[in-house]
C-alpha cells in the first residue's frame, strides 16, 4: 500500500481505444496522447522499440505479416508499462486487445484500463475512408487526402500510401474485427463508451476526451457536498431545492438560515437581529457560526448538503475552506 500511495498515479490515463480499421483509432489515440501528455502503445511502436526483449527475427516476422503471437505482444506491453514514464504518465492502448484471448491475458496480468473508447462506423464509410489514408514517415502522423490534408508542401510530398488499405484488404480486416469485438467488449462492462466515428475528427476527439476525463462513480459511501454559485436571479434556490429533493440532500440557504435564527430567537439570532434592523451586512464571523452550526448537524453530515447564498466573496470562500466545509 505504501508503495502504491507513493506512486500517486491512480488518476493517470489508462485508456484502451478500440474500433474497426480506419475508424480513426490511431488518429484519436495520438491526439489524446498529446493532450494528456501520456504514452501511446500500439503494436507498431511496441515492436519497433529498440530495447524491447524481442528478437530481431520476430521483428522481421512482424514487418512481413503485421501480426504477433498474443503471448509476445502481451509480454511487450507488460515490459513497456513497467517503465517509469508509463507508471507516472499513464498509457493509451491503440487497437489492443484485438482478440478475447488478448483481453483475458491483459486482465490476468492486472492491467486494467479506466476508460475504454470504442469507435464505430458503417463498413462502407470505413472502406471508402481507408483508401485516402496517408502516413508521414518522419513523424508517424496520419493524414487523409480528403479530410485531413497537411498545409505544408514539404509534408505533402513525403506522405506515403500505407500498405493494406485496398477495398478488399479493408473488407477482410473488418470481417475479422466484427468477429472478435463482440467477444472483447464483455471484458469491459461499465467503463465502455461507444462513439460514432462517422463525424468530423475534432468532434470524435472532444467526445473521447470528455469521456476519458470523467471519473467513474464508485460504490463506496459518498456524501455530496454541493456549492451552488450564480448571480442573482440565476435560479440557485430552485436548483438547490430540486437537487435536495432528487438526491436527499439538506438544502442550506445562507440567507434563510440567518432569517430563521432571528425568527427563532436563538442566541446567535439575537446577535444577528440588530444588523437586520439597521440593514447592515452581518459580519462574516457571525454568519460562519450560524452556517457552521447547521453544517455540523447530523442530517448534513449524513446526507450531505447543497449550499447557496454563501460564499459571496473571496474572504468568505477562504473561511469556508479553513473551517473544513469543503464542497466536493
Ligand atoms: N472522423 C474522421 N473523419 C474523417 N476521416 C478520418 C476520421 N478519423 C480518421 N480519419 C482518417 O481516416 C484514416 C484512418 O484513420 P486511422 O487513425 O489510421 O484509423 P485506425 O487506426 O482506426 O485504422 C486516416 O487517413 C485519418 O486521417
Automatic annotation (TrEMBL):
* Class of enzymatic activity (EC top level): transferase
Q: What is its EC number?
A: 2.7.4.3, 2.7.4.6
Output the SUPFAM superfamilies linked to this UniProt entry. Microbial and mitochondrial ADK, insert 'zinc finger' domain, P-loop containing nucleoside triphosphate hydrolases
Q: Where in the cell is it found?
A: Cytoplasm, Cytosol
One example GO MF annotation: AMP kinase activity
Q: What does the protein in this record do? A: Nucleoside monophosphate (NMP) kinase that catalyzes the reversible transfer of the terminal phosphate group between nucleoside triphosphates and monophosphates. Has highest activity toward AMP, and weaker activity toward dAMP, CMP and dCMP. Also displays broad nucleoside diphosphate kinase activity.
What is the protein name stated in its UniProt record? Adenylate kinase 8
- Organism classification, top ranks? Eukaryota, Metazoa, Chordata, Craniata, Vertebrata
Amino acid at each position: 500500500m505504501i508503495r502504491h500511495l507513493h506512486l500517486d498515479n491512480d488518476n493517470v490515463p489508462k485508456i484502451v481505444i478500440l474500433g474497426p480499421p480506419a475508424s480513426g483509432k490511431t488518429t484519436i489515440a495520438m491526439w489524446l496522447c498529446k493532450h494528456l501528455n501520456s504514452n501511446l502503445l500500439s503494436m507498431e511502436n511496441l515492436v519497433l522499440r529498440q530495447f524491447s526483449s524481442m528478437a530481431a527475427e520476430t521483428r522481421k516476422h512482424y514487418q512481413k505479416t503485421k501480426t504477433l503471437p498474443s503471448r509476445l505482444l502481451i509480454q511487450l506491453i507488460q515490459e513497456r508499462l513497467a517503465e517509469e514514464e508509463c507508471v507516472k504518465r499513464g498509457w493509451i492502448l491503440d487497437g489492443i486487445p484485438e482478440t478475447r484471448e488478448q483481453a483475458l491475458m491483459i486482465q490476468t496480468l492486472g492491467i486494467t484500463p479506466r476508460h475504454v473508447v470504442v469507435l464505430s462506423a458503417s463498413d462502407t464509410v470505413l472502406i471508402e475512408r481507408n483508401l485516402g489514408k496517408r502516413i508521414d514517415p518522419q513523424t508517424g502522423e496520419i493524414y487523409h487526402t480528403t479530410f485531413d490534408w497537411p498545409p505544408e508542401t514539404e509534408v505533402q510530398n513525403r506522405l506515403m500510401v500505407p500498405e493494406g488499405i485496398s477495398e478488399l484488404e479493408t473488407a477482410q480486416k473488418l470481417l475479422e474485427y466484427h468477429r472478435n469485438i463482440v467477444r472483447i467488449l464483455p471484458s469491459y462492462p461499465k467503463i465502455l463508451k461507444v462513439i460514432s466515428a462517422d463525424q468530423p475528427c475534432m468532434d470524435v476527439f472532444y467526445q473521447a476526451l470528455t469521456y476519458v476525463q470523467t471519473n467513474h462513480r464508485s460504490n463506496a459511501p459518498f456524501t455530496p457536498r454541493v456549492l451552488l454559485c450564480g448571480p442573482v436571479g440565476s435560479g440557485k434556490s430552485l436548483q438547490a431545492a430540486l437537487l435536495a429533493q432528487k438526491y436527499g440532500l439538506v438544502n442550506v440557504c445562507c440567507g434563510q438560515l440567518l432569517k430563521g435564527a432571528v425568527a427563532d430567537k436563538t442566541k446567535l439570532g439575537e446577535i444577528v437581529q440588530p444588523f437586520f434592523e439597521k440593514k447592515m451586512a452581518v459580519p462574516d464571523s457571525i454568519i460562519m457560526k450560524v452556517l457552521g452550526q447547521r453544517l455540523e448537524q447530523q442530517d448534513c453530515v449524513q446526507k450531505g448538503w447543497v449550499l447557496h447564498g454563501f460564499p459571496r466573496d473571496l474572504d468568505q470562500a477562504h473561511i469556508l475552506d479553513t473551517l473544513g466545509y469543503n464542497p466536493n
